[in-house]
């Protein structure tokens, strides 16, 4: 006889997987990081004071919050065209959505730390890749982490770029955006491949 | 007759039916879900799912709302407060019934 608690837990996990499984949130994060990185690299017409960068970042972060929060109309608009007609609509419990959030903190810390590192030592990226590999091995039990390709790509970009590494955090943000873009696109393609729309045409939700 | 056995007799028969138990389990785990999602998860036919949802709606365990997300029509289902309480009571009785024998054997 199946245990009621494990059946409910399994249903919650499946709903969460479906919520993020279409890759739309990952693509949203990608756009955010790319915008943040680009905004830092754009030369301002006047000599920037420290607060002028905040004038760019704060509206972007507010926009990101409005677009990427769980019940945002923008995400529902996208999902209504891509996800709901294929696999139906489900809104997981807020606790389910926040379940693994803490795993992102070490990733974010490593990205910021590496950004500062590149600012001080632009060349020795091989050491950082090795460091990332070691940390990735330790964190392997939490699943694949995007910080490994992010650091590797940033190292390659900094080493190959003719530009001085004067904006290390911008490089990190751009490469993080590229990593998220690759991951999100792969998720979306896989989702669309597994759930083609053709045989679902005309199938609305009905009771 | 032990207390657990007597509790089993008090199981909510509306929830105890397998198809409705599936629907209630899914809806208990999420904030809300639409008809297609429930159909995919439960494997029930449209007719079956409709009739079981109607039965749960009659008992005021499930709230069914017809709405739109963009142009996409949705029939959104969620558990009512009463539905959540009844499901928790059902789960409590089942837990006691299935864990009791396990404890007795060990």
Question: What is the topology?
Answer:
The complex is a heterodimer of chains A (207) and B (106).
Chain A: H1 4-21, H2 24-41, H3 50-68, H4 73-82, H5 84-87, E1 90-92, H6 94-97, H7 104-120, H8 125-138, H9 147-160, H10 168-194
Chain B: H1 3-9, H2 13-16, H3 18-29, E1 30-34, H4 35-42, H5 46-58, E2 62-69, E3 72-79, H6 81-105
Antiparallel strand pairs in B: 1-3, 2-3
Helix pairs in contact in B: 1-6
Structure description:
The complex is a heterodimer of chains A (207) and B (106). Chain A is built from 10 helices and 1 strand; from the N terminus they run αααααβααααα. Chain A has helices at residues 4-21, 24-41, 50-68, 73-82, 84-87, 94-97, 104-120, 125-138, 147-160, 168-194; one strand at 90-92. Chain A is globular. Chain B is an alpha+beta fold and 106 residues long. Chain B has a 3-stranded antiparallel beta sheet. In chain B, β2 (62-69) and β3 (72-79) form a beta hairpin. Chain B is elongated and about 50 Å long. Chain B starts with a helix and ends with a helix. Classes of the chains: A mainly alpha (207), B alpha+beta (106).
Query: Under the CATH scheme, which architecture of chain B would be assigned?
Result: Orthogonal Bundle
Q: What assembly state would you assign to the polypeptide chains in this entry?
A: heterodimer
Biggest protein-protein interface? A-B, 33 and 35 residues
SSE arrangement of chain A, N to C: HHHHHEHHHHH
How many independent structural domains of chain A? 1
Unreliably modeled segments of chain B: none
Q: Describe the global form of chain A.
A: globular
Distance between the termini of chain A: 30 Å
Q: What's the pLDDT, averaged over the residues of chain A?
A: 72
Q: Could you tell me the radius of gyration of chain A in angstroms?
A: 20 Å
- Morphology of chain B: elongated
Instruction: Count the DSSP helices of chain B.
Output: 6
What summary fits the major beta sheet of chain B?
Answer: 3 strands, antiparallel
Quickly name the level 1 CATH class of chain B. Mainly Alpha
């Amino acid at each position: 006889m199946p245990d009621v608690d494990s059946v409910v837990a399994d249903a919650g996990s499946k709903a969460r997987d479906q919520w993020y499984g279409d890759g739309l949130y990952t693509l949203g994060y990608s756009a955010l990081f790319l915008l943040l990185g680009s905004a830092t690299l754009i030369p301002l017409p006047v000599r920037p004071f420290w607060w002028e960068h905040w004038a760019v970042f704060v509206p972007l972060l507010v926009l990101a919050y409005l677009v990427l929060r769980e019940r945002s109309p923008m995400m529902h608009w996208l999902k209504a065209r891509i996800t709901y007609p294929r696999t139906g609509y489900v809104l997981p419990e807020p606790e389910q959505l926040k379940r693994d959030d803490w795993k992102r903190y070490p990733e974010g810390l490593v990205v910021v730390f590496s950004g500062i590192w590149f600012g001080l030592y632009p060349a020795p990226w091989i050491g950082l890749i090795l460091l990332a590999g070691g940390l990735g091995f330790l964190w392997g039990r939490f699943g694949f982490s995007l910080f490994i390709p992010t650091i590797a790509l940033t190292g390659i970009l900094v080493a190959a770029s003719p530009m001085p590494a004067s904006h290390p955090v911008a490089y990190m943000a751009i490469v993080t955006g590229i990593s998220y873009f690759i991951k999100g696109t792969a998720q979306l393609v896989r989702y669309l491949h597994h759930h083609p729309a053709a045989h679902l045409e005309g199938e609305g939700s009905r009771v | 007759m032990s207390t657990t056995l007597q509790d089993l007799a008090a199981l909510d028969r509306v929830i105890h039916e397998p198809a409705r138990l599936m629907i209630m389990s899914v809806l208990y785990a999420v904030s809300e879900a639409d008809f297609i999602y429930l159909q995919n998860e439960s494997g029930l036919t449209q007719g079956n799912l409709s009739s079981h949802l109607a039965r749960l709606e009659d008992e005021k365990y499930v709230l069914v709302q017809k709405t739109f997300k963009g142009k996409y029509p949705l029939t959104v289902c969620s558990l009512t407060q009463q539905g959540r309480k009844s499901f928790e009571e059902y789960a409590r009785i089942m837990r006691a019934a299935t864990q009791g024998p396990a404890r007795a054997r060990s």
